[in-house]
Amino acid sequence: MGVEDVSHAALAGPPAHGHGSAGPGGTGAGAGAGARLIGAVTLPGVRRSVGAARNFVRDAADGLPAVDDLVLVVSELVANAITHTASGLAGGQVTVVLTAGGGLVRLEVADDGAGGDRPHVRDSAPRVRDEAETGRGMRIVAALSARWGFRADGPRTVVWAEFPAPGPAARGRTGSGA
């Protein structure tokens, strides 16, 4: 699947599984139909790509109030893709897509699949010492985004998160004090 395919999927309507204000399986309009593509990038499935994804989102979402949250969430999602899916294997890739529409910015991260496993928020904090520093990524995504979810794309998984974004008129306002 190329950037064009992921970009098309990003603009293609409601997700299969969602969490957040619309509840699990939510079908809010999101940044689907009528959304505009802000940018997309495909990166190799290696650790240094986490930083590259952060830089891409920081640059592409420059000026949006949610930019810091977008940067943190893309970091978590790309790290998860590289750690927990085939994206982290030799030749693996991760695709990051940003779209905007309907008062939302949607971040999507497509991985190479995890043999049917899907992203989820862990029920409780890790109990094993070796896991003490892991297992919190999707909690961060859930806390910072208005909604999040995923959809299967063949063997791949596309994880998405939506963030409120003011319309162009609101972004252009300045405090004139008049």
UniProtKB/TrEMBL annotation:
Residues 1-29, 111-132 are annotated as: Disordered. InterPro entries: Anti-sigma-factor_SerPK, HATPase_C_sf, HATPase_dom. Signal peptide: none annotated. One of its GO terms (molecular function) is protein serine/threonine kinase activity. Residues 20-29 have a biased composition (Gly residues). Keywords: Kinase, Serine/threonine-protein kinase, Transferase. Pfam families: HATPase_c_2. Residues 65-167 form the Histidine kinase/HSP90-like ATPase domain. Residues 115-132 have a biased composition (Basic and acidic residues). This is Histidine kinase-like ATPase domain-containing protein. It comes from Actinomadura meyerae.
